[in-house]
Amino acid sequence: MSSILVIKLGALGDVVMATALMDAIARQHAEDELTLLTTPAYAGLFAGWSRWRVVGLPRKGWRDTLAMAAWVRRGHFARIYDLQANDRTAIVCALSGSRERVGNHARFPYTHHPASPWRGEGHIFERMRAVLASAGIDDVPALPVLPADPATVARVAAWRTAHGMEGVRYVLLHAGASARRPEKIWPHFDALAERLTACGLAVVWLGGDEDRALNAAHARRCGIDASGALSLVELAELGRHAAFAVTNDSAPMHVLAASGIPVFGLFGPSDWRRTHALGQAHNVIACAPGEHDLTTVSVEEVWSRLAAAGLTAQ
Asked: Exposed (0-12), middle (13-18) or buried (19+): which is 267, by Cβ within 10 Å?
């Protein structure tokens, strides 16, 4: 039995996508001890991963990098999968003492890597598939994995009951985005929510603390405001009982892809071909070619996509 380390520090959407890679690694190393090194902000995502030891270490500055490298070296890992593959984690791998180091770049310190250089072209998940293939792992489905432990299932069930959602067909909407990227916000969620409500679907507005004001305004017109009510793993569990979701290009889009429901991601200024949620490329709703303004995507266009998928019938 060997000791295997996976390194994935952030950001949130990338961590969620990496769960598909971790699931494949776990199948490959069925008899080995598995450890994930991440940051404290994301360690809670893996509460339901019973096979994995999850360690969250800070990563700000050179002191944290050297402390991380020292921790890894003490672990005596037989193989490291560096799914972060930036300069910081390359240093950690170089100082690790591990014989096998799997990474994204065809250079030291990696012993296993794709033959071609990486210049950011294409979807990062496809590149990560190639990274794993270089280490002998070929079967990597494009489906993120966020299992819920029994306590999480119970909390979400209680939340649904408290909000009268048992036996109700509902849709999840995330109308917010990073405060640094307001151009990624589709401005017609209110009109969409009213049409969804009219056809018998309950609406749940998702988001964190930064979305409270926006969601409160939406919920005054219709729907349930769930701002800050759910952890990310709880969000994935809530999604498993939903009909579908409509989101901006945001972290909840990636989390809900783990729920096994259709997730319609709205893309304007960002290139959906590089950042769409795993397994959801066919549900992308993007601006017309050459257009980057989300205001040009109409409610009718979104509605027609939902109707074509058979999701609006009462």
From this structure: buried
Whether 3-133 and 150-308 share one fold: the answer is: yes
d(CA 194, CA 188): 10
Please provide the CATH number assigned to the domain covering 3-133: 3.40.50.2000
Placement of tokens 């699931």 in the chain:
23
Rounded distance between C-alpha atoms, residue 46 and residue 26, angstroms: 14
Give CA–CA dist 290/205, Å, rounded: 30
- 50-96 pLDDT tens trace: 999 999 999 999 999 999 999 999 999 999 999 998 999 999 999 99
Beta bridge mates, 181 = none
pLDDT in tens, 220-270: 999 999 999 999 999 999 999 999 999 999 999 999 999 999 999 999 888
The number of beta carbons lying within 10 Å of the beta carbon of residue 172 is 24
Cα separations in angstroms, 145 against 24, 111, 181, 206, 217: 10, 27, 27, 20, 32
Separation between Cα atoms, residue 96 and residue 74, nearest integer Å: 8
* SS3 state at 225: strand
pLDDT at 314 over 70: no
CATH class, 150-308 region? alpha beta
List the alpha helices (DSSP H) in the chain. Answer: 12-28, 40-43, 61-75, 87-94, 124-133, 150-162, 189-198, 212-221, 232-239, 251-256, 272-275, 299-308
Would you kindly state where each structural domain of the chain is located, as residue ranges?
Answer: 3-133, 150-308
Tokens of 8: 């994935």
Helix, strand, coil content of the chain in percent (nearest 5): 40, 15, 45
